[in-house]
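Let us work through a complete example step by step.
Step 1: write down the sequence.
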Amino acid sequence: MMSPVRPPLKKKPTFVRRLRTASLGILAVAAAAGLGTHSLQAADKVLRVAMTASDIPINIGQPDQGFEGFRFMGYMLYDTLVLWDLSKDKESAGLMPGLAESWSVDPENSKRWIFNLRKGVKFHDGSDFTADDVVWNFQKVRDTKAPQYEAKQAALVAVRIPALDQVNKIDDHTVEILTKEPSAYVPYQVSFWFMSSQEHWEKVGSWAEFAKNPSGTGPWKFVSQTQRAKVEMEANKDYWNPKRVPKVDRVILRPIPEPSARVAALLSGQVDFVEAPPPDAVPRLKSAGMQIVTNAYPHNWAIKPSRIKGSPWNDVRVRKAANLCIDRQGMNKMLGGLSVPAEGHVPPGDTWFGNPTFKLGYKPDEARKLMADAGHSAEKPLTVKIAISTSGSGQMQPLPMFEFLQANLNECFFNVEAEVMEWNALTAFHRKPADDKIATSKNVNAVIVSHALQDPYSGFERFFLSSRISPAGSNWGMLKEPFYDEMLAKAANTFDEEQQNAILRQVHEHAVDNAQWIWVTHDVNPRALAPHVKGFVQAKSWFQDLTPISIEK
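Step 2: predict the structure and record it as tokens.
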């Protein structure tokens, strides 16, 4: 039986009221940014996309703006050695050859990988892609003495390629990658590392100049951009993979962080493709003939607690109580059914789920008993302060969701406060650990940052290894537990997939049984598309491919 939706707070949190009343102002700003005017050639087939990000992701290689930046700037302008196969909607996205046609681990040395590069690939500036570019791109994010080293790109990719130690040229189309320790996850890691044109950078002389006309090998070419307004790309008709040559002539990406503004832009015909429409707008969108597309994928939206000395979350009774005081079915109803209520770190039925003994659910009486045992009551609630974003990169509808979460937890002897930030600011905050002076000065002891869990490193290592405390990974809470260090090292050294999966199931069971996080929900990646948008295949992935889309008016 579905639990009833929890009643809202009698007085809505101030930050929510302010943002909701600002909607009309944001719509006006969007119009001023040029949503209603564009000078496109009539013959062009143009796809216009409304992102949830508040600004254009950086375009020189490694993007910011979280994984939304990867989707809309990284994988569009650039390629990686190994790509995600985003062509299917019925099975989880896997890896496929990218700029490397094949790869293998050295049978005599498990810390040495050989990547055979694709021949005949050209950057957008016309230069050839070779092994020299791979080495050069590694130096740009690892070698602080290299002239092309770029600190922001280095910071953005550091947690994605932790195993990589050296990249060496064998010949023009072969490189070796040496790892610090044996790691079966190297193919996953290089899928997040983008190749910029060495020749073009050397010609223009700096990353600032490179940003004015960036050059990758991807299926889209850069045309122009206006910060906080739009970026325009054109189809790369000479793309090395003929199956992924874009079917439209151009794409325009617009950052529109406010949900109602994105909906208004779609209904008024100013955009064709909208990320994360608010659930209460879905019936109206459907009645207007818009397509609503969803698909479950490995992703979670959860509270990551601080585990530093003195943190209120160090008591497992508190963490379990929070997990038992969230009406996830009610939140799913609030979200219009556009979520999968969490039962653990990964979605129910996932390969790594296993059989945890602690069962998440809505059991407020049991939660209050745990809190009472921990010394808390209605008269003596436990104050927790959670950093949360206003929008962006898989956050779904973070402010209404936080309000719902706040109402739930406050009924179980919590006093929940918010530290609200713009998405990029929150990701920068999250790249510093829980004991950072900014977090401690603000009394923040938890953070909500959505995460895609597409591979073993992204799903487990970066969160639970003691060696991955931010900024070396995403272990923001500074969790240190020998079990994870031992088991995850064992998994990384296991090159047999089934044996590796068995180890990761044990890791997941341990995480849930010890309530390491407070898990809330999994996203289903809703999008709203105009009726004339055809051919889009929503992959079971955080990343998506716009190349199959056609415009048929």
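Step 3: interpret the result. Residues 1-40 have pLDDT under 50 and may be disordered.
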